[in-house]
Amino acid sequence: MEAALSSLRLRVLKGFLFVLCLGACRTQAALAAGSLLHQQAPEIVRLDLNHKKLDLNSYRGKLVLLNFWATWCAPCQLEMPHFVAWQSRYSPRGLQVIGISMDDDPALVRELCGKLRVNYPVAMGDETIGEAYGGILGLPVTYLIDANGEIRAEYRGEKDLNTIERRMKMLLPRR
Amino acid sequence: MAVLAMLFLVHPRIPAQFSGSPAPPESAFSIPKANLLQPDELNRLLQAGSGDKPLVLQVGSHVLFAESHIQGSEYAGAGSQPAGLDQLQQRVASLSRKTFIVLYCGCCPWNRCPNIGPAFRRLEDLGFTHVKVLYIADNFGADWVSKGFPVERGR
Question: Which of B4, B73, B65, B39 shows the shortest CA–CA distance to B149?
Fold first, then answer.
């Protein structure tokens, strides 16, 4: 009886450890894998740098280029002037660029956005948004979100801008 | 996993250093090769039951740190900003100059990281003699998290 109880206790303990381990692995896997391709874009509702409400869902019907960036990220700063130009050129065809800064200090973000003449809404991000988007653990990260809110392309790290632009043009809601 | 670890050991990814003129002090390339630590090496050190355990300090983005960081590591300020370097200096002020310290960032690819070079230089200027820098080729997600090394979240 004593031996059976002891064996049961051991099995319960093993099961508990297994579940604990599985949970930890899942968290890590979610952060590591992180791809949200062909899934609905996680909700983002924030105030932008101009204190206006930025609600990702309100851009349904448009193609959203969602860019995670930071002022200390050199590749991000190479991309941003292109995003500014694309916002001007392709907005009549249904493009909306949105920036999410992963900086700590909004003052630095405002300063750089002014310098780069950023013409699209930018909001401050945090770990909650980062985790929702599968782990923003290196920058830049850019998503193309179609008119129905589905993530159609994901670019992690410094990527060829011509490739992004070609894909973006294919997904624009108005030709 | 073991096979991947073996491959990593056989082909360690050591960055190509600039040849000719020395790299500017703010560049990650200015850090001597002897001071670099590969992710699997650091993981082994941290997992080892005994031995000299380093103080691991993240010197990049606080937001990225809050999302995920090396288990047991501390945030010590962004090395690219004067306020960040001051925070790092304050953190190590009371430590022996022989303390084993590992710095890491992982915000961007190694050749683009603005934080790690200045942070390393600051500790060197303060007289620390046992400082290693975690070599992160692409970013923290790709080079640490996705390899399954232990992480935790929070500020």
Answer: B39
| Nearest one of A158, A32, A72 to B63, comparing CA atoms | A72
Q: What is the pLDDT of residue B23?
A: 53
Contact A126 B66 (CB under 8 A): yes
Q: In angstroms, what separates the C-alpha of A79 from chain B's closest C-alpha? A: 14
3-state percent helix, strand, coil for chain B, nearest multiple of 5: 40, 15, 50
User: pLDDT by residue (tens digit) across B32-57?
Assistant: 999 999 999 999 999 998 888 999 99
Cα separation, B24 vs B154, in Å, equals 33
**Identity of the residue in B67, B78, B148 whose CB atom sits nearest the CB atom of A127:** B67
pLDDT digits (tens, 9 = 90+) for B96-108: 999 999 999 999 8
Residue A37 C-alpha, separation from nearest chain B C-alpha, in angstroms: 17
pLDDT per position as a tens digit, B64-103: 999 999 999 999 999 999 999 999 999 999 999 999 999 9
Distances (CA, A) of B142 to A44, A88, A160: 24, 33, 19
Q: Which of A74, A75, A135 sits opposite B68 (nearest CB)?
A: A135
